[in-house]
Design goal:
This is Nucleoside triphosphate pyrophosphohydrolase. It is a single chain. The protein has helices at 12-18, 30-51, 54-70, 75-89. The chain is an all-alpha fold and 103 residues long. The protein has a domain at 28-86. It is elongated.
């Protein structure tokens, strides 16, 4: 037996079952779900740092989408918030790096 204790994608139980194995699955309450989403975010960020692949980046975005929806916000509204901030403060297109500010 391998113990994982982590949030998984919705189709993973069926994939495990189809492989001939049996998984123990729990459905989380909202409070525990929020905690495990944050843990999953850290896990996916670590994997992206290690692998630097678009696949890992897609996993990271999937977790971000889950967090957005859990907070009761639509992806469209979240994207509007992102674009409003980009309009006010800019993006990262120019690759600017702040070294210091004289006071």
């Amino acid at each position: 037996m391998i113990v994982y204790n982590k949030l998984i994608r919705d189709k993973i139980p069926k994939i495990i079952e189809q492989s001939g194995k049996q998984a123990v699955i729990e459905t989380l309450d909202d409070s525990r779900y929020e905690i495990t989403l944050k843990e999953k975010l850290q896990e996916e960020l670590k994997e992206f740092y290690e692998d630097d692949s678009l696949t890992e980046l897609a996993d990271l975005v999937e977790v971000i989408h889950a967090i957005v929806l859990h907070k009761g916000c639509s992806i469209e509204r979240f994207e509007n918030i992102r674009m409003e901030k980009r309009e006010k403060r800019g993006g990262f297109d120019e690759k600017l790096f702040l070294v210091s500010v004289d006071e």
